[in-house]
C-alpha cells in the first residue's frame, strides 16, 4: 500500500507544469546563466579594451610615449576630457604639463592629472594600467638621470622582493567564485524543486478537500506521511544532483571558471561527499516544507510560510565573510551555513572527513528531531482537515 500511495503522489506532482519547470527548466537556465555570467566576470579584465582621452592640443611625441608605456590603451583626443569620461565615451583621461619635455630634460617634476570614475569597474581598471605605465616611465627616467651622473641605479634598491604564491592566481580567483556559486545555487534549486510538491501534497489537498478521503482509508497515517515525505525528498534530491551534473557540464565550456576545479586535489571524494550532503539536505528541507504546508490552509498560504525560509538559504553567504578562513568545526553543525563552509574548505584544501561527518550528522539529527513533529501534526485531523 505504501508503494501505491507513493507512486500516486509522484504521478500527481509530475502532472503539474510547475513541478517540471522548477525541477528541470529552472535549474537548467539558472546554472547555465550564472555559470557563464561568473566566467564573464573573470574574463572581462583580460578581454576589455580601454580608451584613454587626452587634450586635443597634445603633441604627437607625448602620445608616442604614452603608447609606448601603455600599449593596451587606445588613445583618443577630446575637447573636454572630463566630460568624455562622465558620458562614458572613454574610460580614463590624462592631462600633462604642456612643457613636459623641457621639465623632463631639466629633471623637474611633471604635473600629471589622471581623471577616472571610481564608481566604474572599467574606469578603475584603466587607471591601474595608466599608473603602471607612468611608474615604468618614471623608473626608466630615474635610471637615465643616475647614469648621467655616474651613479649606479642599484643604490636605490633597498629590497629585492620576490613573491611566491601557494597556488595559481587565476585558479584561486576561479575557485573563490565557485565556492560562492555552488553552495548558493544548489540549495536554492533543491528548495524550489521540492516546493510545488510540498505545497500541493498537504495545503493543496486541504484546499481541494481531498485530504479527508485519504485520511479515512484503512492505511496507517504514518505510511501516508512517509509516502508524501519521500515524494518531496526525491524531487529535491533529483534537482540537487541535476544541478551538480549541469554545473560539471557547463564549467567545461568556460574559459576561466574551469580553472577553479583544478584546486581540488581529490575531486572524486568531494563529489561523493557533496551528493551525500545534497541527499541529507533535501530530506531535511522536505521536512521543513512539509511541516509548514501542514500548518497552511491553502497553497497560497503555504507559499507565504515557505518563501522566507527559502530566502534564509542565502544568509550564510553574508556571515561567511566574517567567519574567518581557518577550519572551524562548530560551524559544520549549523544548517545552511555548513554547506557554504564545506565548499569553501574543499577549495582551500582544509576539508576533513571529521568536518564532513559533523555536517552530515547534524542533518541526520535534525531529520530525526523534526519527523515526530511532522507525524504529530499529520495525526491531528482538526489541523489536517483545515477550515
TrEMBL record:
Cellular compartments per GO CC: membrane
This protein's UniProt keywords: Membrane, Transmembrane, Transmembrane helix
Topology term for the membrane: Multi-pass membrane protein
Name of the protein in question: ABC transporter permease
Domain ABC-2 type transporter transmembrane: 18-375
Molecular function in Gene Ontology: ABC-type transporter activity
Subcellular location: Membrane
One Pfam short name: ABC2_membrane_3
Organism, scientific name: Lederbergia citrisecunda
Main location: membrane
Residue spans crossing the bilayer: 20-38, 172-191, 229-250, 270-288, 309-333, 353-378
Source organism phylogeny: Bacteria, Bacillati, Bacillota, Bacilli, Bacillales
